[in-house]
Amino acid sequence: MEINISGIIIEVRKKKIKNMYLSVKPPDGRVVISAPISMNRQTIESFARSKLEWIKMQKKKYETDAKKTDRQYISGEILYFWGKPYLLIFQERGGGNSLELSEGRAVLTMRGESTAKQRETYIRERYRAMLKEEIARLLPKWEALTGLHCCSWHTKYMTTRWGTCNTVKKRLWFNVQLAEKPVECLEYVILHELAHTKVSNHGAEFVAVMDEYMPMWREVKKRLNAQVDGLLSGEV
Q1: What is the mean pLDDT of residues 45-70?
Q2: Distance separating alpha carbons of residues 13 and 203, to the nearest angstrom
Q3: Could you give the percent of the chain with pLDDT greater than 70?
Q4: Residue 236 near residue 222 (C-beta atoms within 8 A)
């Protein structure tokens, strides 16, 4: 469920708890309220309004932090591929672009006048290609294991989600940034989204699916959503 308070979209998660809890999550200040199952919408909205100034302050903080951590894709920066850090080495050269990974080094070759945005776009497309290859390998494995199937899957760059599922069309989307995380994190997201083809919420039935096929999923989720060297990502 979502509520809109003064233009701020707030996700509401109903849980078996006694009190309400409010959090503003990185990287872009997504707002989440955890509320007791029996609590009505009006009470939740009143609670959110009472915390509006604090919410705005936290969201502004994340916007400021995001600007500080913008990469320039120059030599000396660190890139992550499947959970492993690589020292970025930028080399100037005309002609085609390339990215070579070897012995902890990521050698990016592009035109010297290329902008940070152009380098970022190229790196993201390399992440996308790597991610697609792994999904094509792992998704059939999890579909066979669980008996749950999607009708189609796609990739896109997202700032607040590692994955999403259209439960009606059984269409899955995966965050391109997953290529930066360990492969086990990708497997967790694949299972998570496949579970949504059966269960649309995160209730007991959903948890039962996760527990059955990946008993350690909670630990993997923590690693997935962890901050690594200033890099903040989405959440499932």
Answers
A1: 79
A2: 10
A3: 91
A4: no
pLDDT at 63 over 80: no
Cα 88-236-178 angle, rounded to 5 deg: 25
pLDDT of 227 strictly over 50: no
Do strands 30-36 and 8-15 pair parallel, antiparallel, or not at all (unpaired)? parallel
**In which element (H, E) is residue 45 found?**
helix 41-50
For the entire predicted model, the pTM comes to 0.71
Taking the C-alpha atoms of residue 2 and residue 13, their distance in angstroms, rounded to an integer, is 9
Q: Stretch 142-156: mean pLDDT, rounded?
A: 97
Q: What is the 3-state secondary structure (H, E, C) of 116-159?
A: HHHHHHHHHHHHHHHHHHHHHHHHHHHHHHHCCCCCEEEEECCC
- Specify whether the CB–CB gap between 20 and 36 falls below 8 A: yes
pLDDT tens digits, one per residue of 108-120: 999 989 999 999 9
Q: Report angle CA 89, 91, 94 to the nearest 5 degrees.
A: 155
Two structure tokens written together for 172: 């899955």
Residue 210 corresponds to which tokens in the numbers above? 């996760």
pLDDT at 89: 95
Edge-to-edge strand order for the sheet containing 105-110?
A: 78-81, 84-92, 105-110, 98-102
The Cα 170–Cα 34 span in angstroms is: 27
- The single-letter DSSP state of residue 231 is B
Please check the confidence at residue 209 and state whether its pLDDT lies above 60.
yes
Per the DSSP assignment, residues forming a β-bridge with 165 are: 172
Residue 148: what are its φ and ψ, rounded to 5°? -100, 140
Q: What angle do CA 51, 52, 57 make, to 5 degrees?
A: 100
